[in-house]
Every structure is written in structure tokens, then in C-alpha cells.
Write a structure and sequence with these properties.
The chain has 448 residues and is α/β, with parallel strands linked by helices. 42% of the residues lie in helices and 12% in strands. The strands form two sheets. The protein has a seven-stranded mixed beta sheet with strand order 1-7-6-5-4-2-3, with helices on both faces. A four-stranded antiparallel beta sheet has the order 8-9-11-10, with helices on one face. A hairpin with a 7-residue loop joins strand 8 and strand 9.
Length: 448
């Protein structure tokens, strides 16, 4: 089972090469009963012929996975890994790198840290900033909020059962609310005007509260998932500094815009973050799953997350240069998931990333212009980043659902409806630099 098999290697490499050279169609969701039939009895004591299993994957299973890296995938937040990142991800996977500690993976960790330093510099965070790569924004938000909670309890002399709250807007990503529930911290929800949290709104809400002393931090968003709205980071940071609150910035989707000169001014204030999350598997063209988690003062994360056990003693030394990613998040075992991004950045350079991100921003503005000029459509708001919200005049929720299904059935595009202020509307999410304006015009025409 562990012996090198050249025939198996050639078989899988041929499939990998075909996937890279010939991006598949969008595909369709599978049906549970049919998939159960396909898989029935496959895992058995005696095994199966590799070619037959790969054929089953190629013909039966792969076509049920919607192709997220397709230029025609315009829903949720797409992904579009570079070929360099995808190829290097294969190398990382077959290298069995245990990215838990400097002892086991010093070179890979040094390379990951080079990327983290780049992101910290883009945000304007100080020289001592550091962190690690985790699986996604949810894991990053959870780990950052644990650090914020434990730091506040230690500084304020609070016990584990004392009440603490964390300020979040009514537009915050669902993972923030989930993380607060998991760690036993109450959300202090702040209503927003025009879906954007501002410094004055935060200050006003705290002043209006009967006892705001148990609010320990605030989570701001650098690019909301639904509409790409960037909070008033500078104003929020000012309040956080005045009231000694931890400032966490969720830039899972929008943080990549730091590389784009046309929108960089919108992020003013992000340099004051105590913790920051950016998902490279979204807009930095890395494969799933990859999120960067940064701390202004990494020792606060070490205090919250370092795991102590006799079998881990060999990992911990007094040498600060020996960076252990396991000390900065809730994980222990981890793959070196930042390496594909590192390789792609080293190969292509940051200018190529800037160009690709600006391409999506330009496409969003052009799409908004087309929508604005279409008599049967209404643009809901001007795009700040690469998400575009719009409505079809006269349509109800079921009309959007049928329209979306028709587009996918015809393999034209995958455009899932979304909700906005209690109404079902349409939404484009542009990330892939290969998405064309011609496709946007075709989709808009399909709504007439």
C-alpha cells in the first residue's frame, strides 16, 4: 500500500494535468440516492482497481461539484487559484509536511511567515506583527476572539465566569456570532445605517448602554460578504483606542483589496487592528483552504493558544525565532496551507496580483453601469468592491430562483439569489479575472 506505484502515479497525474488544462463546465448538483448507488460497496476488504475508481470519480462524482473556479461562477465568494498555486498545493500535499512547529517544518514556516509579513505590511501593521494560516475565516475569527477574550480577562482581572461582551454590527459575518457563542462571550449588536458600522455609531451605542464596562472589544468588517461594504475602520479604531477595546478586523473577503490602489483608501484605519483575518482562498487566488490570521502582539495569542503537554515539550524553546504556528490559533496539527500562496506570489510577483484584483473591481463597476442602464433592472447600491447587488423590477423570490436554475441548467453561469433588507435580489460576485463583460451582458439580457 505504501510502495511507489508508477502506474498509479501516471494515472493520477494525467487526471491532474487534464483538470488544469481543461477547466470543466459548471456542472450540476447531484442527487443523494443516485450518489449512494454509485458509491455502494466501493470500500471493501479487497480494494478496487485504481483506474476504475478514478473513472468513477471522473464520470460520476466530479460532475456533481459546482466548479467554483469557473469564470462563470458568480455566487457567494468564488475562488480562482492560479496554476502555480494549484500545482504547488499538490507538492505540499504529497510532501506530508506537519506544519505544527519550527522543529518539524522550519523552512515551510519561514516561507509562510514571509507571506504573513507581506499582508501585515499591506495593512500597515507594525514590525512585530505575526500569526499563522488557518483553514478559513471562521477558524481565524474564532481564534482571534479567543485571544481577545483571554487578553481582556487577564488585563482586567476577570474570572472565567465574569460576563464579557464583544461589539459587532448587525452586518457582521455569521461566523463572528457563532464564534462568540462557542467561547461564551455575548454579542453587543450595534444597528447600522446603510449597512456600515461607524465610529460614531459604536460610541453612541456604548454610551447608551447601562453598563458598557463589560464590552471588551469590537469586530469591524473590511468587505461584507453580501455587498462588499467596508466599515468605518478609522472611526472604529479611534473609539477602540479611547476605550481600551480589542479591535478585530474581518477582512476574509475584502482584505485582498489592500493590494488595489483604486480602493486602498477605503481601508484607512486597518493598521490599528489587534487582529486581522484575510482569506487568500477567496481573492488572493490560493486553493482551498487558506486564511491568514495576524496579531498585532503575537504574544497575546501565544498566551491564549499554546498547548502544554509532556509530548509537546520538544516543540517549545526559549528561542523567539522558532515560530510555532500551533501557538497562534485553536489548532495543533496543521498542513502548511500558506505555501501555495507563497509559491504563486514568488513566481508571479505582487504586481500581477494587483492587476488581477483591479480587473475584478473594474468589472464590478462596468457591470453596475450596465445594470443602471437596463430599464428592467435596478442597481441597489454602487459597488465598493467586487460584489454587485441589483433587482429585477417586478420579480418575486420564486422568479429569481427559477432564473438562477435556468442559468445553471444551461451552463451559462451560476448566480445564486441573495437577501437584502427582507427582499430577494440578484447578486454578482466578481473575483475571477477571466470573467468577461460579455458574460455579464448575457446574464442581464436573460432577465428581460
Amino acid at each position: 500500500m505504501h510502495t511507489y506505484d508508477p502506474a498509479l502515479t501516471d494515472l493520477v497525474l494525467a487526471a491532474l494535468r487534464d483538470r488544469l488544462l481543461n477547466r470543466p463546465a459548471l456542472h450540476h448538483p447531484g442527487e443523494a440516492d443516485k450518489l449512494d448507488q454509485v458509491l455502494a460497496g466501493l470500500i471493501r476488504p479487497e480494494g478496487n482497481d485504481a483506474a476504475e475508481v478514478l473513472r468513477l470519480w471522473t464520470e460520476q462524482l466530479a460532475p456533481t461539484a459546482i466548479t467554483v473556479d469557473s469564470p462563470r461562477f458568480l455566487s457567494f465568494v468564488p475562488a480562482a487559484p492560479t496554476q502555480a498555486a494549484a500545482l504547488f498545493d499538490m507538492l505540499v500535499s504529497c510532501s506530508s509536511i506537519q506544519g505544527v512547529s519550527w522543529l518539524l517544518a522550519s523552512g515551510p514556516i519561514a516561507a509562510e511567515n514571509q507571506v504573513l509579513r507581506l499582508l501585515a505590511d499591506l495593512a500597515g501593521m507594525p514590525a512585530g506583527t505575526g500569526g499563522c494560516f488557518v483553514s478559513g475565516g471562521s477558524a481565524g475569527n474564532l481564534s482571534a476572539l479567543v485571544t481577545a477574550r483571554d487578553t481582556a480577562r487577564r488585563r482586567r482581572g476577570l474570572g472565567p465566569h465574569d460576563r464579557v461582551r464583544f461589539a459587532v454590527s448587525d452586518q457582521a459575518h455569521s461566523s463572528l456570532g457563532n464564534a462568540l457563542r462557542i467561547i461564551g462571550v455575548e454579542p453587543f449588536v450595534i444597528p447600522t445605517e446603510d449597512h456600515r458600522l461607524t465610529g460614531p455609531a459604536l460610541r453612541s451605542a456604548l454610551h447608551a448602554d447601562t453598563d458598557p464596562s463589560d464590552v471588551i472589544g469590537v469586530a469591524a468588517t473590511a468587505g461584507t460578504t453580501n455587498a462588499g461594504i467596508i466599515d468605518d475602520l478609522s472611526g472604529i479604531a479611534s473609539v477602540a483606542r479611547d476605550l481600551d477595546l480589542w479591535l478585530h478586523v474581518d477582512g476574509a473577503y475584502g482584505g485582498a483589496g489592500l493590494l488595489a490602489p483604486s480602493v486602498r483608501h477605503r481601508y484607512r484605519g486597518i493598521e490599528h487592528a489587534d487582529s486581522l483575518v484575510i482569506d487568500p482562498h477567496k481573492w488572493l487566488f490560493a486553493p482551498f483552504d487558506c486564511a491568514a490570521l495576524l496579531y498585532r502582539a503575537p504574544r497575546t495569542a501565544q498566551a491564549a493558544h499554546t498547548q502544554d503537554a509532556s509530548y509537546l515539550d520538544a516543540l517549545h524553546t526559549d528561542d523567539d525565532a522558532q515560530w510555532n504556528p500551533s501557538d497562534y490559533a485553536h489548532h495543533l496539527s496543521r498542513r502548511a496551507r500558506g505555501l501555495p500562496l507563497w509559491f504563486s506570489l514568488a513566481v508571479h510577483g505582487t504586481h500581477a496580483y494587483t492587476t488581477a484584483i483591479e480587473t475584478a473591481l473594474t468589472l464590478a463597476r462596468d457591470a453596475a453601469s450596465i445594470i443602471r442602464d437596463a430599464p428592467h433592472l435596478q442597481l441597489i447600491r454602487e459597488p465598493e468592491l467586487s460584489a454587485v447587488l441589483f433587482r429585477r423590477i417586478g420579480w418575486a423570490s420564486e422568479d429569481y430562483t427559477r432564473w438562477s436554475a435556468r442559468l445553471l441548467a444551461g451552463q451559462t453561469a451560476f448566480v445564486a439569489p441573495t437577501g437584502w433588507e427582507g427582499e430577494t435580489v440578484a447578486r454578482f460576485a466578481f473575483l475571477n479575472p477571466e470573467t468577461s463583460l460579455t458574460l455579464v451582458e448575457e446574464i442581464v439580457d436573460s432577465m428581460s
